[in-house]
Design a protein that fits this description.
Arc Repressor Mutant, subunit A; 2 domains; 9 helices; 0% strand; globular
Length: 191
């Protein structure tokens, strides 16, 4: 049996420190005005350590975002798809509610649209991969179309919710999302 190697604690601490520094700095100034020097000063790490892990600040930002989207994709409960709350909406919306100043910083930096676009693409890929391995018979809607629909609806709703200053609690947004997508899944996924 092959054991999965645990990540090095120093690497984890470095990544955590840099992520925390990025979140803090985005709430203080535009993303374009943040430098690698700002990040390493705030995270209290060396320049060579930064470049051991990331190419530049965009790479740091993108890898953190992709990791977050991948984590959300892993939380999908496919057994409930079409009949209940299967997407991790509450977890996702609660998390983004907690980092609202960070999101506003991304809006100021004009990064939010690109962020949601890349999030939709990445989540769509993860959903398509999951559907291909879990669905025994081909859905009535092609898997890439269905995956893009589910991811697009999620990020569209999330963007609206944040832009409108979170008018409903995450639990209500969970209900709304699943009321919108479950009828489509009931038709698309063979039982």
């Amino acid at each position: 049996m092959v054991r999965k190697k645990k990540p090095d604690r120093r690497t984890q601490r470095t990544r955590h420190s840099l992520t925390h520094a990025m979140v803090e700095l985005v709430t203080e100034k535009r993303f374009d005005d943040i430098t690698v020097q700002n990040l390493i000063d705030r995270a209290d790490i060396g320049r060579s350590t930064f470049y051991t892990h990331f190419r530049d600040k965009e790479d740091l930002f993108q890898k953190n975002w992709e990791g977050f989207v991948d984590f959300c994709a892993q939380q999908i409960v496919w057994e409930k798809a079409g009949n209940g709350s299967f997407m991790p909406i509450i977890c996702l919306f609660d998390h983004l509610k907690d980092v609202q100043p960070f999101y506003q910083g991304l809006v100021r930096s004009r990064k939010s649209d690109a962020l949601f676009k890349s999030g939709t693409e990445r989540l769509s890929q993860r959903i398509a991969e999951a559907l291909k391995t879990r669905v025994k018979h081909a859905p009535s809607i092609p898997v890439p179309v269905l995956a893009n629909y589910l991811a697009g609806e999620l990020f569209g709703l999330l963007k609206w919710w944040l832009d409108e200053r979170m008018p409903y609690p995450p639990e209500r947004m969970d209900e709304i999302y699943h009321q919108l997508v479950n009828p489509t899944l009931q038709l698309a996924l063979p039982r």
